[in-house]
Amino acid sequence: MQTRLIELHQQRGRLQERIANQRRELALQMAPLQGVLAVPERVGRLVQEGKQFVVQHPLVLGTALASLLLFKPGFVVRWAGRGVTVWRTWRTVSAMLPGFVRERLRSVRK
Known about the structure:
Blueprint: H1 2-30, H2 34-56, H3 58-70, H4 73-109
Helix pairs in contact: 2-3
């Protein structure tokens, strides 16, 4: 009876080691798919953030809808696209600017 119990424990240990190896191998194989699998999560988070924004800023949504009613939709969409482009450019430049200024100051001090 004792011998059988030892064999079962050894078998269990081998199985657990095999499972751990399979999990590591699966994680390595799934690594390239992590970006693709994260897309639905990012979309869901974006939708939640958009919902929160609309709830917190109903005036923005009301203004956008009123502008669609007052002006032609093409005009509004075109200017909204321009606004988004300007906003993204500003975010990129403002994010890069402090680093750029720091690098310039370092090169001047040397």
